[in-house]
Amino acid sequence: MSIHQTFFNNRSPLAWWKIASFLLLLFVVLKGFTSPVPRLPILNETIRNLYFHVPMWFGMTAFLLIAFVQAIVYLNSKTNKALQDFRSVEYTNMGMCFGVLGIITGMLWAKSTWGAYWTTDPKLNSAAIGMLIYSAYIVLRGSIQDEEQRARISAVFNIFAFPAFVSLVYILPRLTDSLHPGSGGNPGFSQYDRDREMNLIFYSSGLGFILLGVWITTLRIRLRVLKLKLGQRFTQSSAVIDSH
C-alpha cells in the first residue's frame, strides 16, 4: 500500500485525520489534567471541565448540523438516496451521543459549582427538551417499516428538528436569567481571560472530539452500507433459487 493510500484514504486506520484525532485527544487528556488553571471563585479546579463539557456541545451541534444538511440532500437527490439517509441518521445518533455526554459532564460540573446535579436553569431544561425531540426522531424511525417512507419522513422531521433545537439551546436561554455562563447576561468564559495554553487545550479538544465523532460515524455508515449490500445479495440469491 502506497503512502497516499495509507494516510489519505478514509478507509485506512492510519488516515491522517484519524491519527490527528488520537494525538489531539491524548494531548487534551494529559495537559487538561496537569496544566495550571486560574483560581476563580467557586470554579477552582472544576474549570478543567471546560476542556470536555463545552467541546461535547461543539461536537453535538456540528453533527446535528451535518445530519440536517444530509436530510436536505436526501430529499433533493435522485441517486445514492440510501447513503444520504444513512449519513443523516448516523450523524443524528452521534449528535445525540455527544449531547448526552455534554449533559452528564454538565451535571457533574453543576454539582460542584451550583450544589445540585440539576436545577431549573433554562439552559439545562432546554437542552433536555432538545434531546427529547431527537429521541422522538429515533422512535419515529423505528415505528415505520417501509424503508423509503421511513427515510423520507425522518428527513422531514430532521429538517424541522434542528432549527427548533438551536432555538431551544442557543437562543431562548439568552433571553432570560440563567446561571449558565454566556446566557441571560451571565458572562461567558471568554471574559475570564483564558491564557494561551488554556485556549490551545480547549480548541484542540473541540477539534479532536469532532474528528473522533466523524471517525466513529463513518464506520457505522460503512456497516449500514455493508448490511444493505448483503441484504440485496441475499434477496437476489433467493429470487434465483425460487425461479428454479
Task: Please characterize this protein's 3D structure.
It is a single chain. The protein has 244 residues and is mainly alpha-helical. It contains 7 helices and no strands. It has a single domain, classed as Up-down Bundle (Four Helix Bundle (Hemerythrin (Met), subunit A)), CATH 1.20.120. It has helices at residues 3-7, 16-34, 53-76, 81-113, 122-143, 147-171, 196-243. The longest helix is centred in the C-terminal third of the chain and has 48 residues, at 196-243. It is globular and about 65 Å long. The protein starts with a helix and ends with a helix. The model has no long low-confidence stretch (mean pLDDT 83).
Q: How would you sum up the major sheet?
A: none
User: What is the overall number of helices?
Assistant: 7
Radius of gyration: 21 Å
Through-space gap between termini: 43 Å
Quantity of strands, as a count: 0
The CATH topology label is: Four Helix Bundle (Hemerythrin (Met), subunit A)
Portion of residues in beta strands equals under 5%
CATH class: Mainly Alpha
- Helix fraction, binned, reads over 70%
CATH architecture: Up-down Bundle
Q: What is the total number of structural domains?
A: 1
Helix/sheet category: mainly alpha
Order of H and E elements: HHHHHHH
